[in-house]
Amino acid sequence: MNFKDRINAVLHHKDPDQVPFAPYIECFPSGEYERMLRNRGMGLVVRKPTIWEATPDVPIEKKVEGELSVTIYHTPKGDVRAAYKQHSGRLYIDESGICVEGLLKSIQDYEPIMYMIEDTVFHVDNTIYMDTVRDLGGDGLFTEYGCALTPYGHTRYIFGESSGFDTWVFEQADHPKEFARLFDAIIAREERRMQLIAESPSEYIRFGDIDGSWGPEVVRRYDLPFIKKWIPYLQSMGKICCVHAHAINLVFFKDLIGEMGFNVVEAFTPPPVGNLSIRDARAAWGKDTIIWVNFPETVFYQGPQSVKKYTQDLLESDPPGNRLVIGFTEMGLWGASDSETERLFKEGILAIADAIDEAGDFPSSSTVG
Amino acid sequence: MRDILIEIKNAIIDGHNALVKEKVEVALNQGLNPADILNIGMVEAMAEVGRRFERGESFVPEMLLAARAMQSGLVILRASLVKADFKATGKVAIGTVKGDLHDIGKNLVSMMLEGAGFEILDLGTDVAPEKVVAVVKESSPDIVALSALLTTTMSNMKVTIDALKTAGLRNRVKVIVGGAPVTEAYAQQIGADGFSLNAARAVNVAKNLVGEG
To answer: How far does B149 lie from chain A, in Å, by closest CA?
Structure first.
């Protein structure tokens, strides 16, 4: 099987020849190391939106302030601004950088932001999907990234990315009415987006995340009704729906994830970093849920032999191995800027490939044995 | 426990900012010992928030709201504590390591430690080892607390510990580490004195290291 056949076998509930090794492409610098891994069977997982948003009645101004790139939105209700830090080495090297100052910082910002949300129009370009799928051929998988956040998750990111969490929390407590209006406006916008996602040619849909910072009851209150409405609909349209569950405290979310009805639980980070084992997750979610592991890179610091043993144990913990994917969804080599870390990570990733070669064939040896 | 201390404790746990201020003022007006207000009303509240976090009954937002409520009480209480010559549990210099801009975990640990009576020197994010060395030289903290969210920046915890060794300062300060990807095994591997799985546990780790546990 080539990589595409292998990952599609897992996603479509058939049997692969081997557990797929499927990291996001941004977790690896393209070049000879990536080629070496691809020769070992690693696939390319490309996440792109086929839908993007624009606010036609909001002029945008961009400027540079020191090391920050600043975007100012001039709305009829007032101006709001966001700031992004750029040039952080291999990390955040995309055009925008990492958001260090979110749009919403005080109560005055609600009205302009509400205007922007209501002014939002969506543009669809299905050629992004078709071109990427054609370019990847048998080597990769296209992930629709146009609805990566749930409505409540969107409220969080309006306040920033690496910062703004505390303001987001305090605003909910201090200005609940304004926050509720903001949330309702986002819901209305996201309903429009989801219909477009349902009609898109993309098959594999990343939809929302489990961050772990806020609790399962909050997710139940804010996002579960939206999820329960849209996931069955998307599935009825032939979509395979995935939640990005990168929380390290998934034990507390185990039941909630079971209720959500996703086909794939991605970014699943097992112990020693996360607190939910694959075995316990499988017992909770059943044999058909696809568990897509985010390899806990902390193990790399113990050296390649430990990585290999760890991976073998991981593979053997989920027999028969036909609903399991091994990948990197958070870091990989992204951000490894010193030579020692890079060496450890590269050796570790090769050790994962070795372990999959030796213990990743379907059915797993633990079943056969 | 006096009713007013229970009220302060509950108001902090529930994150009622304004109510905590009001109740601390009432407690002071009733002539309560400021140290009792702090230790019995406030520190115990944060400890309870920590226990709930451990059990998965509270999450980061609840901790942040409680910490903010505690801070608002401390503002009222601080002058009385100074008058009473109240001593901090210890001094902690805390920061997110070089290359890492994330601050939620670091801020939570700061708040929990402050809530437990520690004096905090917040070094911010993306903190270079040289800066940690300079702070240890100048401010003599009891503990340096290092945070990392990224697996690729956690190696800078070791670089920082090595910089303290090179500067001849390693024996003058305890180093604790934490953050999503950090494990106890890694903490031991790099020679840290302590590791905490989360902000709630950091208090006990720090207290043990300064002999208050």
So the answer is: 10
> Over 70: is that where the pLDDT of A366 sits?
no
- Tell me the residue ranges of DSSP E strands in chain A: 44-48, 51-54, 60-65, 68-75, 78-85, 98-101, 121-124, 140-144, 204-209, 240-244, 264-268, 290-294, 324-327
Residue A1 has pLDDT above 80, yes or no: yes
CA B206, CA B213: separation in Å to the nearest integer? 8
Same domain, yes or no, for B117 and B176? Answer: yes
Check CB contact under 8 Å for B60 and A213. Answer: yes
Could you report the predicted ipTM of this complex, rounded to two decimals? 0.92
- Inspect the interface and report whether the beta carbons of B64 and A330 lie closer than 8 Å: no
User: Residue A93: its pLDDT value, please?
Assistant: 47
Q: Which domain holds residue A95?
A: 57-106
pLDDT tens, B36-78?
Answer: 999 899 989 998 999 999 999 999 999 999 999 999 999 999 8
Domain count across chain A = 2
pLDDT digits (tens, 9 = 90+) for A197-232: 999 999 999 999 999 999 999 999 999 999 999 999
Q: Which residues of B touch A298 (CB under 8 A)?
A: 151, 154, 181-183, 186
Residue A16 covered by a domain: yes
Please tell me whether residues A99 and A199 are part of one structural domain.
Answer: no
Angle at CA of residue B131, ends B126 and B136, nearest 5°: 130
Report the gap between the CA of A248 and the closest CA in chain B (Å).
Answer: 7
CB-based contact B99:A336 (threshold 8 Å):
no
d(CA B125, CA A39): 39
Could you tell me the residue range of the domain that residue B15 belongs to? 3-83
* C-beta atoms surrounding B39 within 10 Å: 15
The 10 Å Cβ neighbour count of residue A347 is 14
> Which tokens sit at A106?
């005080």
pLDDT of residue A90: 52
Beta-ladder partners of A324: A291
Q: Please check whether residues B100 and B183 belong to one and the same domain.
A: yes
Contact residues, chain A, for B185 at CB < 8 Å: 272, 302
| Substitution target from A26, A166, A246 for chain B, most B beta carbons within 10 A | A166
Q: What are the strands of the beta sheet with B194-196, ordered from one edge?
A: B119-127, B91-97, B143-147, B174-178, B194-196
The span from the CA of A336 to the CA of A354, in Å, is: 22
Q: What is the pTM of this model?
A: 0.91
Inter-chain contact A214–B61, Cβ cutoff 8 Å? yes
- What secondary structure letter does DSSP report for B40? I
One domain for residues A9 and A158: yes
Mean pLDDT value of segment B119-144: 96
The answer to whether the CB atoms of A89 and B64 lie below 8 A apart is: no
Residue of B nearest to A337 (CA): B152
A–B: how many Cβ contacts below 8 A? 93
Give the pLDDT confidence score for residue A341 in this predicted structure: 86
Q: Which residue of A has its CA nearest to B126?
A: A88
